[in-house]
Amino acid sequence: MWRRTIRLSSILASSRPSLIIQTETAYRLKISERFCSEVNGGSPARDKTPFITFVLGGPGSGKGTQCARLAEMFGFTHLSAGDLLREEISLNTENGSMILNTIKEGKIVPTEVTVKLIQEAINSSANDKFLIDGFPRTEENRLKYEQIVGGEPNMVLFFDCPKDEMVKRLLSRNQGRIDDNIETIGKRMEVFRAVTLPVINYYSNKGKLYKIMAVGTEDEVFERVKPIFTGLKFGGVMKLNI
Ligand code: ADP
Ligand code: C5P
Ligand code: MG
């Protein structure tokens, strides 16, 4: 269980309760109420569970790019599962070489390893709101997170991007990643289709999924995702039941 004294005020500065109330679904309202509890005179510092947003999408769909902007604008801590794993490689930890080989193959790192890194990152942060990027990638990731970290995410973003566009972006990402080559990209796309899409469907069925059309410039995509957090409506964002 979460036992940390925290404040939601920083994110709330940009929230607009009157507009949030106009949003379409009870679920959104529930999230908005949570965002707005302090604005509306809720108790000040108190024990609270963190506000967790999972961020999903195929490789190259723009998760990391958009998370960085959301973190900056709304005060989230951005935790990229891939970055946490790559850090293990660069620190040469006991799992480092196993992680390196798994990433090279475009496969999924054993869930306990990834969940532990996420848990440690959350625990070591004073923040109370997180974007967890690139996780959960599999049903096992999802279930273990629920068991070990506890609870479900408050919401899930899905950056929906055609495969051709994702491949194009990955091939020009130019960050020296060992998995941004055509062979590994093919494997990662298949893993996404086979094991991550079912997780996305799971959250859709739970009414937690926000699908964002990820084609267009970075600015255009950000204009679609921003309203999810500000409570403004925008045509490019829809709550999905697929
Ligand atoms: P992901 O984290 O989903 O794998 P990234 O955010 O790393 O994706 O983006 C992959 C590559 O595509 C990066 O080089 C990034 O600069 C670029 N990129 C991100 N968003 C867009 C966009 N909307 N249009 C074109 N290129 C983009
Ligand atoms: O999200 P990102 O593209 O940075 O992930 C890179 C790689 O890290 C994935 O292809 C996969 O090998 C590994 N990974 C994983 N489990 C996660 C997230 C990433 O195994 N939940
Ligand atoms: Mg990324």
Describe the structure.
50% of the residues lie in helices and 14% in strands. The protein is an alpha/beta fold and 242 residues long. The chain has a domain at 3-8 and 50-80 and 128-230: Rossmann fold, CATH 3.40.50. A six-stranded mixed sheet has the order 4-5-3-6-7-8, with helices on both faces. Strands 1-2 form a two-stranded antiparallel ribbon. It is globular and about 40 Å long. The two termini are 32 Å apart. Residues 1-33, 35-46 and 232-236 have low confidence and may be disordered. It binds adenosine-5'-diphosphate, cytidine-5'-monophosphate (C5P) and magnesium ion. Adenosine-5'-diphosphate is lined by residues 57, 59-65, 169, 173, 216-218, 221. Cytidine-5'-monophosphate (C5P) binds at residues 59, 80-82, 85, 102-103, 106-109, 114, 134-135, 137, 141, 179, 188.
Ordered list of secondary-structure elements with their pairings:
Layout: E1 5-6, H1 9-12, H2 17-20, H3 26-36, E2 46-47, E3 51-57, H4 63-74, E4 77-80, H5 81-90, H6 96-104, H7 111-123, E5 129-133, H8 139-150, E6 155-160, H9 163-171, H10 182-205, E7 209-213, H11 218-230, E8 237-239
Parallel strand pairs: 3-5, 3-6, 4-5, 6-7
Antiparallel strand pairs: 1-2, 7-8
Helix pairs in contact: 4-11, 5-6, 7-8
